[in-house]
């Protein structure tokens, strides 16, 4: 079985990883087509940043704003690559409905259908693919969440994903349409992500395909922090996290680990390197 690679297309002015590089529709479409050329199996198009501290719900990006960002991109990509498999990264039912009608086939919901009371029913009506991601709290709350041990975090993620997937199934979503994502970095601080990655295979007990989205996350930047970024303070022990554009090799290490722990889909910004990593990791598993 081959690991699928999902390429990220952020049509936002404030993405933590790309800082609005693909905010214009033209740049976003060009980037999406490039990711397909590099081997992406799925495009994940999003119009709202869920970086730490971002406001969600009331006070955040409205559904109309979000649709203005993503709908033209979905339509253009579908026109130029009719066979492209498109995912819409949203937690809003109205956005999900409009984007699926425009050609998206998957809804990737970082809230696992919890932040919009209409989402579960909408997903059932749309009969689309569904990614349910675990988020501990909302982005504006993450900095104040109490820390958990590795065992406690894994238990929490497993228990809540079980509950949340059961809820959408009860609302009418077919089980075979669902993929689960443990939500690396979403309400998990630096040290809480590594036990979750190391023990990702234990989530197979939930009996759903798993998606791992570790790409350029801050826990990788913290691990790659360097004292030499403060040349005037050599020997002080003070380090600066590696910025998102310098987390490629760290990301690839986590992608490899996720695949070897049984991830079925990996969500990445840098598609070509991830495709090659996945090919080798799949060969290891196949042996």
Question: Would you give an account of this structure?
Answer:
The protein has a single domain (4-286), classed as TIM Barrel, CATH 3.20.20.20. Helix 3 runs parallel beside helix 4. The model has no long low-confidence stretch (mean pLDDT 92). The radius of gyration is 18 Å and the shape is globular. An eight-stranded parallel beta sheet has the order 6-5-4-3-2-1-8-7. The protein has nine helices and eight strands. With 287 residues, it is an alpha/beta fold. The chain has helices at 25-37, 63-80, 93-102, 119-126, 150-170, 190-198, 218-223, 248-260, 271-286; strands at residues 4-10, 42-46, 86-89, 106-109, 129-133, 178-181, 211-212, 265-268. The longest helix is centred in the middle third of the chain and has 21 residues, at 150-170.
List keywords for this structure.
287 residues, alpha/beta, TIM Barrel, eight-stranded parallel beta sheet, globular
């Amino acid at each position: 079985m081959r690991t699928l690679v999902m390429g990220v297309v952020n049509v936002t002015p404030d993405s933590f990883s790309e800082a609005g590089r693909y905010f214009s529709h033209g740049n976003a479409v060009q980037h999406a087509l490039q990711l397909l050329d590099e081997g992406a199996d799925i495009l994940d198009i999003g119009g709202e940043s869920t970086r730490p501290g971002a406001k969600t719900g009331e006070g955040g990006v409205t559904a109309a704003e979000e649709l203005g960002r993503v709908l033209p991109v979905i339509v253009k990509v579908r026109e130029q690559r009719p066979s492209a498999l498109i995912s819409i990264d949203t937690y809003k039912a109205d956005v999900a409905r409009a984007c699926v009608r425009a050609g998206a086939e998957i809804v990737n919901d970082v809230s696992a259908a919890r932040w919009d009371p209409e989402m579960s029913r909408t997903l059932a009506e749309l009969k689309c693919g569904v990614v349910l991601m675990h988020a501990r709290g909302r982005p504006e709350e993450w900095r104040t969440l109490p820390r958990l041990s590795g065992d406690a975090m894994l238990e929490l993620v497993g228990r809540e994903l079980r509950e949340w997937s059961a809820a959408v199934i009860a609302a009418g979503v077919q089980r075979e349409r669902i993929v689960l994502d443990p939500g690396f970095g979403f309400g998990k601080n630096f040290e809480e992500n590594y036990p979750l990655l190391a023990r990702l295979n234990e989530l197979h007990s939930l009996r759903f395909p798993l998606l791992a989205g570790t790409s350029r996350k801050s826990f990788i930047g913290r691990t790659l922090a360097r004292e030499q970024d403060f040349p005037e303070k050599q020997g002080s022990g003070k380090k600066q996290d590696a910025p998102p554009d310098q987390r490629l090799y760290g990301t690839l290490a986590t992608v490899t680990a996720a695949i070897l722990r049984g991830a079925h889909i990996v969500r990445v910004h840098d598609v070509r390197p991830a495709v090659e990593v996945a090919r080798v990791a799949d060969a290891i598993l196949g042996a």
